[in-house]
Design brief:
It is built from 20 helices and 15 strands. By secondary structure, it is of the alpha/beta class. α13 links the parallel β8 and β9. The longest helix is centred in the C-terminal third of the chain and has 20 residues. Bound molecules: 1,4-dihydronicotinamide adenine dinucleotide.
Length: about 500
């Protein structure tokens, strides 16, 4: 079998396979879905374009989806997050580095942004699909929404017959997307419209991507049904919190090896990710200060025992600054200039616009020293006698995936079990007759009973003994003995 792919080095496949084997042991959710659905092949015929950090855990997801019958092309959703050995192992599959037989992956650690958008185009561009749309992708699995965005923008500009120029207000990266679309429009003016017509649904992993989907749906522009995987309870209340609690200190340690105990850590944002971040830093003995714009989350942080302050008031106190907001312009260049000498600045929200990296590069007299890949010292006032510097992790991109290996397998088993179930839902219910459709071009969360199922799949591995409702108790609470156990509005 020959197929196109682009990864760093196929000779890493064996190392990757060992890690995948160990990860499978820690991913009971995915492995039991393989056992349950492998025989019935519910994803047969699904051709999934996947855009999600190409890690060891994602390798187990990819191989679960193929075990359920899907065909796949995969890219990472971040330029620094690929684990090259995992990417190699997925490509090699049951073959050898000389004769790979796995899945086409387009991902390597340290892509340029140009390369990143090339990989995004590759997962949506299936061999032979330009002449036969039946061969193109029919499902998307997205993280952060870049694949979905590229496709929607492509359709929009093909309808307009032209791709506009980026304006000064657009993020720098937007010009690259426009470049990809301009080139494709010149070659094949219906490419994205044709691909979009074949897509039966998208499942989206993260808060930021979900936000984009709801915006598209509100504007009536969403081209296919979407499942918001992030807001499964077993995703956002686990991955975003407990995953971060593990992978944030992992990233800081691997990047800097600075003792966190006794330091002042400032966490911007106290949503799910912020809660995990603050808890992890406190667990290491740091004194944590939280910033928030939402009075409810600010009050929660205060009641959890954190000082809540404005960034401006604590800039000179912090030793470590972590952004977790999913918002833009949270730490600006003028803030970084005021920080203590050797303060560490990192972001764990989805995009790199939380920290003003463009502004930092423009500070007068600033120089950038590479300590090692994804760890940079930005030196202010070099040679003036008042020289100071700050350490920026992963150039302002997700530091847990740039400086470390992201969340551990067990928590990702929860997130990816939701992804797998979402793909099965959208794919198996794609042809319901008009009027009976469960999924229109809107954004849905999975039914609570499936959310509970995902949790259930992880209990045995932890030795959890779940108490069973008696029939009488179930009647008293007006519940079914088998669940769901909470109303939709319950917040956990
Ligand atoms: P969330 O919406 O629960 O929390 C974000 C919080 O930031 C909110 O409470 C909001 O009020 C606050 N906020 C917004 N602007 C702010 C500002 N200027 N200053 C201070 N606080 C501000 O979202 P969640 O789930 O915590 O996700 C946050 C980001 O992390 C998203 O971009 C998400 O995609 C990403 N994410 C990253 C992961 C990783 O592995 N690195 C894992 C999961 C999510």
């Amino acid at each position: 079998m020959t197929f196109d792919f682009k990864v760093a080095d196929l000779s890493l496949a064996e190392a990757g396979r060992h890690q995948i084997r160990l990860a499978e042991h820690e991913m009971p959710g995915l492995m039991s879905l393989r056992a349950e659905f492998g025989p019935s092949q519910p994803l047969k015929g699904a051709r999934i374009a996947g855009s999600l950090h190409m890690t060891v855990q994602t390798a187990v997801l990819i191989e679960t989806l193929t075990a359920l019958g899907a065909e796949i092309r995969w890219a990472s959703c971040n330029i620094f997050s690929t684990q090259d050995e995992a990417a190699a192992a997925v490509v090699v599959g049951n073959g050898t580095p000389e004769n790979p037989q796995g899945v086409p992956v387009f991902a390597w650690k340290g892509e340029t942004l140009d390369e990143y958008w090339w990989t995004a185009e590759q997962i949506l561009t299936w061999p032979g699909a330009d002449s036969n749309p039946e061969l193109g992708p029919n499902m998307i699995l997205d993280d952060g929404g870049d694949a979905t965005l590229l496709l929607h923008k492509g359709v929009e500009f093909e309808a307009a017959g032209a791709v506009p120029e980026a304006s000064d207000d657009d993020p720098e990266e937007y010009a690259l997307i426009l470049g990809v679309l301009r080139a494709s429009l010149a070659k094949d003016p219906q490419k994205w419209t044709r691909i979009a017509a074949g897509i039966r649904g998208v499942s989206e992993e993260t808060t930021t991507g979900v936000h984009r989907l709801y915006q598209l749906a509100e504007q009536g522009k969403l081209l296919f049904p979407a499942i918001n995987v992030n807001d499964s309870v077993t995703k956002s209340k686990f991955d975003n919190k407990y995953g971060i609690r593990h992978s944030l200190p992992d990233g800081i340690n691997r990047a800097t090896d600075v003792l966190m105990g006794g330091k002042v850590a400032v966490v911007c944002g106290y949503g799910d990710v912020g809660k995990g971040a603050a808890e992890a830093l406190r667990g290491q003995g740091a004194r944590v200060i939280v910033t928030e714009i939402d009075p409810i989350c600010a009050l929660q942080a205060a009641m959890d025992g954190y000082q809540v302050a404005r960034l401006d008031t604590v800039l000179e106190q912090g030793d470590i600054f972590i952004t977790t907001t999913g918002n833009k312009d949270v730490i600006m260049a003028e803030d970084m200039v005021r920080m203590k000498n050797k303060a560490i600045v990192g972001n764990i929200g989805h995009f790199d616009n939380e920290i003003d990296m463009a502004g930092l590069a423009k500070v007068e007299g600033v120089t950038k020293v590479e300590i090692k890949p994804q760890v940079h010292e930005w030196v202010f006032d070099a040679g003036t006698g008042t020289e100071r510097s700050i350490i920026v992790l992963s150039e302002g991109r997700l530091l847990n995936l740039g400086n470390a290996t992201g969340h551990p397998s067990f928590v990702m088993s929860n997130s990816f079990a939701n992804q797998t179930i979402a793909q099965i839902e959208l794919w198996t219910k794609r042809d319901q007759p008009e009027g009976e459709r469960e999924y229109e071009n809107q954004v849905y969360v999975l039914p609570k009973i499936l959310d509970e199922k995902v949790a259930r799949l992880h209990l045995d591995a932890l030795g959890v003994e779940l108490t069973e409702l008696s029939k009488e108790q179930a009647e008293y609470l007006d519940l079914d003995v088998a669940g769901p156990y909470k109303p939709e509005h319950y917040r956990y």
